[in-house]
What does this fold into?
Amino acid sequence: MQELMFEPVPGPLAETLVAFANSDGGSILIGVDEEGQITGQAFADEVEMALQGAVERCRPPVEARWHQAATEEGLAFSIVVNRSPELHSLADGRVLVRTGSENRPLSGEEIRQLAATKSTGDFEAEVAPGAQRGDFEDRVIGEFIEKWQERQHREWTRSVDELLLEMGALTDVGDPTVAGVLLFAARPQVFLPQSGLTFVKFIGKEPRGEDGHAGYGRREEITGPLPRIIQRAWQVVGEEMRTGATVTELERKERTEYPIPAVREALINAVAHRDYRLGGRRIEVRMFSDRMEITSPGGLPGFITVDNIVDEHFSRNPRLVSGLFQWGYIEELGLGVDLMIDEMTRAGHPPPEFRDRPYSFSVTLRNVIERPPQPDWAGRVTERQAKALNFVETRGRITNSEYRDLCPGLSAETLRLDLAELVDRGLLLKIGVKRGTYYILK
It folds into this structure.
């Protein structure tokens, strides 16, 4: 995450420091405009004084480091804040988190939830007991470096261990961390037995066998580093999913039992966000005739709830998430839930069902096809809004630019407010932020 700050002012700077530290970290750019051009209006002594004043407003102080870059146009500065294992507030008592491009204050209940998560420490950064650097598998590391270079569009020229240190897989003295073992060890389950995945396929709608007694059609224990677990789990689920076909305008299209992107995101989210401190239970994927249930140990992290899971983002394991992002398993940080909802509803299925318990979180995908009757918008919305709703009924989604095409001659702000009203009334659901925003039927 990044924030542009044209002038280094202690108050707003402190708010962003706290919000970044309580969330997933980020960078504050000073002396750079919205186009990324250096303005030449920022100076080192001003930035240093503002940062000092901002840190003094944080309780406890937020650790931040700053860098400067000099060009012919002037100086630019970057203040880097890492996610903190502590709960931070401002001197006036406000607790902020980062939501999109804004710093949002938390309610009392949200603060309690975040504090409960923070008090557990940063488990993925801890040294993995008994693990040594030699437990990492060179082939897995080599594959990661290739993916990292593709993602970064540049070659890694330093040593392998320097990259592992930079991403949090090794400590400063070369000991493997929990994150490093989960991502790169040949057999992470030797050190963290709970880090595997169990797949079970049942014949009907209940957890029973063909004879009506307790049983299953297929069971598979999947182990190895997390990238291999994701690969194998996806392969097994793909083998068990029913497939069909639809014919539209003389074109035949394959149709899987569940939308592939939705299943993929549910699997990756379970692996990336589970609480690896909890022993005795692995991630479970259970397929029934009418649904798929994916359950990961550990409730929702931080201030995330089932009600705000679409709009908010908080990572329990930011190093694992970053590693899987560089690997290419996560395409865009923070949008997995949005994608699941969009893919399921576009395929005619009910939206995913989320269930949060103290020690587990589950996602249920149902394979029934829902085709509700065309709703009657007359009398409930304006003529313009009816156009938007009918467009979503036909296309599955609508963006701000598509709505402007439907209603030429009106200001972008007027049309944005139209869509915002439909969201407030519970008719549409807003997905994404900024230029990636679109709307689907709720």
In short: The chain is about 35% helix and 20% strand.
